[in-house]
């Protein structure tokens, strides 16, 4: 049952000037022991065999459903330190999600193949957005070919060729990759009037321009670690097949560059290092891109203005749909008593060539996103 007009996706609607987007601020981290460093950041010829120890790789489970678990654990354990104000209206409610969800939404006006589903949850004055696998993606994951798995593993192996565990150490690719190892930042920013709190997996700290000291120990207090992380320059590491003709160049600019730009811009990353490989998985060339030049050189195919204006509009749409849902179920007065409301959930769906739709087909009980421990304990302090 549709409860709100559909959200149109056509890129031409969102070509206004770039919305206000604050420089992201680091407020936390997840997996400090997996923090990596990159000393080589320049264009050069190399010979990296991404198949090295491929037979011993530890892969992420294809069917692993992470939901928002790591971010929620961080919020729960750090609630006292963060001391976020309790919001009384949905329009002021902070949005919690992962960077991947925002990248997916932001790129939607230019997407023509990948549908998506997003669950929105209103709980104690906070909004949680969680991407859910579509039927197509579930099927693709279940039937992933060995070649597809190899492509994924090549990306992880390239990171191992380029990064080390300490600023002064050299990379050691002569060991199998553990693809489950992740280091993430938790950041906050504002996109126009939307406060966003989000987790983002980060590839490495750049340490080729300045001397970077060793990181604090894993048991250091969070403030010490934050002071260390906040002034470091992070980079993105990517791989791509060699570009050999005009069609490949156009596809690279139209699709890869758009996603790379969104991913990087959302977390304040200014530099991307790409390893260009052949079909056998041998990286033969390193090339450095600045995020600014990615946007400039690809402007005939996509616009960052469109991406971020649509993301801003989607967040507004989510809030309006939640307001309408609360009024329908609990009445107008409930909008000023969010802290005592039961969970309110909505499912947002989009398919290529269509509009974003919201409906009540989603049943939270069949697919709980927030663990009971989190529901019971987070945001339980009294309203002031």
Automatic annotation (TrEMBL):
Assigned EC number: 3.6.1.-
Transmembrane annotation, as ranges: none
Keywords (A to Z) from UniProt: Hydrolase, Metal-binding, Nuclease, Nucleotide-binding, Nucleus, RNA-binding
Function in brief: Decapping enzyme for NAD-capped RNAs: specifically hydrolyzes the nicotinamide adenine dinucleotide (NAD) cap from a subset of RNAs by removing the entire NAD moiety from the 5'-end of an NAD-capped RNA.
UniProt-listed PANTHER family: DECAPPING AND EXORIBONUCLEASE PROTEIN, DOM-3 RELATED
Organism: Bombyx mandarina (Wild silk moth)
GO BP term, example: nuclear-transcribed mRNA catabolic process
Subcellular location: Nucleus
InterPro entries to which the protein is assigned, alphabetical: RAI1, RAI1-like_fam
One GO MF term attached to the UniProt entry: mRNA 5'-diphosphatase activity
Residues of the RAI1-like domain: 43-371
Top-level EC class as recorded in UniProt: hydrolase
Protein name as annotated: Decapping nuclease
GO cellular component, one term: cytosol
Family membership noted in the UniProt record: Belongs to the DXO/Dom3Z family.
Listed cofactors: a divalent metal cation
């Amino acid at each position: 049952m549709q409860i709100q007009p559909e959200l149109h996706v056509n890129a031409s609607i969102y070509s206004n000037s770039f919305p206000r987007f604050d420089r992201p601020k680091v407020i936390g981290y997840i997996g400090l022991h997996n923090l990596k460093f990159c000393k080589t950041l320049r264009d050069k010829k190399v010979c990296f065999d991404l198949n090295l120890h491929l037979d011993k790789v530890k892969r992420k489970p294809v069917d692993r459903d992470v939901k928002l678990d790591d971010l929620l654990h961080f919020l729960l354990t750090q609630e006292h330190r963060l001391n976020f104000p309790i919001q009384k209206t949905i329009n002021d409610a902070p949005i919690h999600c992962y960077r991947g969800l925002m990248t997916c939404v932001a790129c939607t006006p230019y997407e023509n193949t990948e549908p998506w589903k997003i669950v929105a949850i209103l709980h104690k004055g906070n909004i949680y957005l969680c991407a859910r696998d579509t039927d197509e993606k579930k099927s693709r994951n279940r039937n992933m070919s060995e070649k597809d798995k190899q492509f994924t593993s090549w990306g992880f192996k390239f990171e191992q060729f380029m990064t080390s565990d300490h600023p002064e150490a050299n990379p050691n690719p002569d060991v199998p990759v553990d693809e489950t190892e992740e280091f993430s930042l938790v950041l906050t920013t504002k996109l126009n009037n939307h406060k966003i709190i989000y987790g983002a997996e980060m590839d490495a700290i750049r340490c080729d321009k300045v001397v970077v000291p060793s990181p604090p120990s894993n048991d250091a207090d969070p403030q010490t670690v934050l002071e260390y992380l906040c002034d470091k320059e992070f980079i993105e590491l990517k791989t791509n097949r060699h570009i050999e003709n005009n069609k490949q160049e156009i596809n690279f600019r139209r699709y890869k560059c758009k996603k790379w730009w969104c991913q990087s811009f959302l977390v304040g990353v200014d530099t991307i290092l790409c390893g260009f490989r052949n079909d056998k998985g041998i990286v033969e060339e390193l090339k450095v891109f600045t995020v600014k030049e990615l946007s400039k050189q690809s402007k005939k195919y996509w616009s960052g203005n469109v991406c971020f204006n649509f993301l801003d509009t989607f967040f507004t749409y989510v809030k309006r749909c939640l307001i309408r849902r609360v009024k329908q179920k609990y009445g107008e007065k409930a909008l000023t008593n969010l802290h005592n409301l039961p969970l309110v959930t909505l499912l947002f769906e989009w398919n290529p060539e269509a509009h974003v739709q919201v409906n009540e087909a989603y049943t939270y009980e069949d697919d709980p996103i927030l663990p009971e421990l989190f529901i019971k304990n987070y945001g339980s302090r009294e309203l002031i």
